[in-house]
Design a protein that fits this description.
Structural class: alpha+beta
Number of strands: 8
CATH class: Alpha Beta
Number of helices: 4
Number of domains: 1
Shape: globular
Strand content: 35-45%
Order of helices and strands: HHHEEHEEEEEE
Helix content: 25-40%
Oligomer: single chain
CATH architecture: Roll
């Protein structure tokens, strides 16, 4: 298991390193897709990330979970915690929204979308997440986010995801 995790981490690192060394061209990535297909992928992923933010902002765990691929192959890494499978992530999401939260505000501050194929894309970026509890306490997190998305039945879904963040008191 440790070897698989090591090789998965190494693969992600090498892919990220290669991706970062490529010339940044927001209109078309270096792949075999046409410009129109690349733009369609970018629009689809962008819209999916907007729906993810809207689900968070409306405290709707069902809407948030629509962003993730409902598969045992789904993996989320949050800081150093590995959560395997959609069911485990869904349960964590429901538990999060079960605490006395007054409101949340998720604002994407950076989204970089790299079309890989017509049905696969890589997303990396950041967002601001403000959580206001009913007690009046506010937590501000600024996650760095990376995900592999797959087009599934017409919807862009996250297959692999990693976010790292620090919590700031505001």
């Amino acid at each position: 298991m440790r070897n698989k995790l090591f090789y998965l981490s190494l693969s992600v690192f090498l892919f990220a390193n290669y991706s970062c060394s490529q010339k940044n061209n927001s209109e078309h990535s270096n792949n075999t897709l046409s410009v129109a297909d690349s733009q369609e992928v970018v629009r689809g992923v962008f819209n999916a990330t907007e729906e993810f933010a809207n689900g968070n902002n409306s405290l709707d765990s069902e809407k948030v979970s629509e962003f993730w691929l409902q598969s045992p192959d789904f993996i989320l890494v949050e800081n150093t915690t590995l959560i395997n499978g959609f069911d485990a992530v869904y349960k964590n999401c429901q538990n999060f929204y079960a605490v006395p939260i007054d409101s949340t505000k998720l604002i994407w501050t950076e989204r970089n979308i790299l079309p890989l194929t017509k049905n696969m894309a890589h997303l990396y970026g950041r967002y601001d997440m403000y959580i206001r509890f009913k007690s009046g306490e506010v937590i501000h997190a600024v996650p760095f986010y990376s995900a592999l998305l797959k087009l599934e039945s017409g919807w862009w879904k996250v297959l692999r995801s990693h976010e790292s963040y620090e919590l700031n008191d505001n």
